[in-house]
Amino acid sequence: MESKCTVTPKKSALTGSARKIKDNAADWHNLMLKWESYNNTAFSAANKIVNLKISSLSHEKMLLDDTETPRDSTDKEELEKLCSELLELFEKQQQIQLKMEKLTSTFKGVCDLEAYQCSGDIPRPILFHTWPTNLFYETSLKMSEMYKKEISLKKTIVGEIAHTSDQDLLMVYLSCWLYQPFIDNNIKVLLESMLLETGHRPL
């Protein structure tokens, strides 16, 4: 009877490091889609906060000019509701960013294992088409660092947006949330390259 350890796996079924890398590439794709979805919803909430703030600031000015009567607490309640919504969405993006860091750590683990197995003159394998294993780690790290800086900026915006009375600064916060200055335009190229290399996209 043939023992389990001598059974040859089907060639189509990836195993070990190759399977881990391919799964990680798919996870990166899915996390980036989720991030964008949360970011768009959060921008909508942030936009409402800014509009409410600007409206409130204008109203306060009219009160000082004695041209308006005081408003009730409706605006304050609406502002608190929107701020809670924005915070909740930010926390979801924060969780995604931490998962991206974990993916990068996994890539590094695969690289470290390969370095251990291929010490000395043993050539390192190409697991897919042309990329050496360390290129997956370097690409993941580059993307992960972008999101790490971006989440730090968003944390500042979440903490300040409801307390800012400067309309120009409010518009800067809104613009930063939408355009995500720390996420380079070439990030989609990096991701697509990884998906092509691992076979998730046809060559």
From TrEMBL:
This is Cyclin-dependent kinase 2-interacting protein. It comes from Engystomops pustulosus (Tungara frog).
